[in-house]
Each structure stands twice: as structure tokens, then as C-alpha cells.
Design a protein that fits this description.
Blueprint (H helix, E strand, L loop, with lengths): L4 E5 L6 H14 L6 E5 L5 H7 L6 E4 L16 H6 L4 E4 L2 H6 L4 H13 L3 E6 L3 H5 L3 H12 L12 E4 L13 H19 L1 H6 L1 E5 L4 H8 L6 E4 L6 H8 L3
Parallel strand pairs: 1-2, 1-8, 2-3, 3-4, 4-5, 5-6, 6-7, 7-8
Helix pairs in contact: 1-2, 5-7, 7-8, 10-11
The protein binds phosphoenolpyruvate.
Length: 249
């Protein structure tokens, strides 16, 4: 049976105590959940959440990382530090990083390669703005983000990479792409992947959808053939709104 990958991005929310409380609730509620589930708390809560998740299948993720292994990079958190805490995956190129912190494809690609080098699975986020969609450049934008984000990634490393398609206009807005629209973009991403790595590799890649995913739209989105999971922001902050997404079937 096809398995899905559901990730919760807690963004800049929750103290350490609040993060631990949510992790414990999810551990209990999602015991036995057959999907791959990941939570990405703030850096400050990673160690405590790692401890709270011990004995569960829920994976620990980070929301970003620096582009260097170590050194004089004030304010950055390195891949080695994440690894040390038991982080298994890292969200890279989130639209908030691209748009509020001016992260470009080259920087994101550097982080993708560094994460892979150290055995941390990147979730590479791509997505168009409303202006780009309405201006007819959706495919050009998405194609560029996928190609540049994966530059130098060997075919053998692809199984460790997830792509998250997150239309910028759907993040935190309550607007969701229709399952049909989202699936069409996922299909286009597979086409780009096939041109880079071949059909077989493209078909087996995990592509999550993100953008106002909630319990009431998760099943219809994930029923689509090219949608392999969800990257969830707002609805990942409470057990009552996140657990039903992970338990959607
Ligand atoms: C996100 O931040 O990746 C996201 C999809 O947020 P939301 O679910 O709140 O739209």
C-alpha cells in the first residue's frame, strides 16, 4: 500500500514546555499510525522534543539550517548540531525563508547538498506566488526552483529527498489549491524530475502538498495520484487539528 509523509512545521511558535506537551500528545494519539510523520519544532525545543518523542515513530525535523558545517556564522545553526540532536529531516527553501529572508535557489541548494552529506533528509519547498501564477509563469518558476534546488544531487541520493509543493498564496491564508490544481503542479514537478533523473526515479519521489491543509481537505488532496503527503503549518500546532491529518485514512 502507498504510504504518505505528513510533516508539521511549528514555525516560530511554542515554548519548550508547550512543544514537549504537544509532542507527548501526538506520541500517544499517533501510536500505530501507518504514515511517516515528522514534527519540526523551533530550534530551541529540538532537544526536549527529541527526548519526548523517544519510543515513538514520529520523526524529528528542523525548520532550516545554516549553509556551512561550522565556523564564524553568528546566529546560524549547523547541520552537525542538528544531527547531534537526532534531527532526521530539515525543511529547506520554505517560502517564508525565500520571501522574508531573501533566500535564493543557490543558497537553498547548498543547504540541500550539505544536509544530504550528513544524512539528514531535506524537504525542498517550492511554490509560486499568486502574481506568478496569474502571470503564466508557474511552470517556469517551479521548474527553476526544482532544478536549481537539486543541482548536484546524485540519483542515488534522491530517495532521501522530499519535495514540498507549497503555493505561496495558500500558506497560512486558508486558501487551498483544489486537489486537481495541486495534482497538476505535482505532475509537472514529476515531469521536471523525469527530465533530470528518468521516469522511474521521478515516479518514486515523494511530493508533499502544503498550503492550508486541514483535516477536512487532507483526504481529498492525498487521494490524488501525484500527492504523497502534506506539509502542514497552522493545523500542526494542536493535536486535535494535526492528528486527524496524519490519521486521514
Ligand atoms: C507551511 O508553513 O508550510 C504551511 C503550509 O502553512 P499552513 O498549513 O498554515 O498554510
Amino acid at each position: 500500500m502507498r504510504s504518505y509523509y505528513i510533516a508539521g512545521n511549528w514555525k516560530m511558535h511554542k515554548t519548550v514546555a508547550e512543544s514537549v506537551a504537544l509532542a507527548k500528545e501526538l506520541k500517544e494519539k499517533l501510536a500505530g499510525c501507518g504514515e511517516k510523520v515528522l514534527v519540526a519544532p523551533a530550534f530551541t525545543a529540538l532537544a526536549a522534543v527529541a527526548e519526548a518523542l523517544k519510543g515513538s515513530n514520529i520523526l524529528l525535523g528542523a525548520q532550516n539550517m545554516g549553509p556551512e558545517e561550522q565556523g564564524a556564522h553568528t546566529g546560524e545553526v549547523s547541520v552537525l548540531m542538528l544531527k547531534d540532536l537526532g534531527v532526521k529531516a530539515v525543511i529547506l527553501g520554505h517560502s517564508e525563508r525565500r520571501h522574508s529572508y531573501s533566500e535564493g535557489d543557490a543558497l537553498i541548494n547548498k543547504k540541500v547538498l550539505l544536509a544530504l552529506k550528513h544524512g539528514i533528509e531535506p524537504i525542498l519547498c517550492v511554490g509560486e506566488t499568486l502574481e506568478e501564477r496569474e502571470g503564466g509563469t508557474l511552470e517556469a518558476v517551479i521548474g527553476m526552483q526544482v532544478r536549481e534546488g537539486l543541482k548536484g544531487v546524485e540519483a542515488a541520493a534522491l530517495k532521501s529527498v522530499t519535495i514540498a509543493y507549497e503555493p505561496v498564496w495558500a500558506i497560512g491564508t486558508g486558501k487551498t489549491a483544489t486537489p486537481e490544481d495541486a495534482d497538476a503542479v505535482h505532475a509537472y514537478i514529476r515531469k521536471v524530475l523525469a527530465s533530470l533523473y528518468g521516469e522511474t526515479a521521478s515516479k518514486s519521489m515523494c511530493i508533499q502538498y502544503g498550503g492550508s491543509v486541514k483535516a477536512d481537505n487532507a483526504a481529498s488532496l492525498m487521494a490524488k495520484p501525484n500527492i504523497d503527503g502534506a506539509l502542514v503549518g497552522g493545523a500542526s500546532l494542536k493535536v486535535d487539528t494535526f492528528a486527524p491529518i496524519a490519521l486521514f485514512r
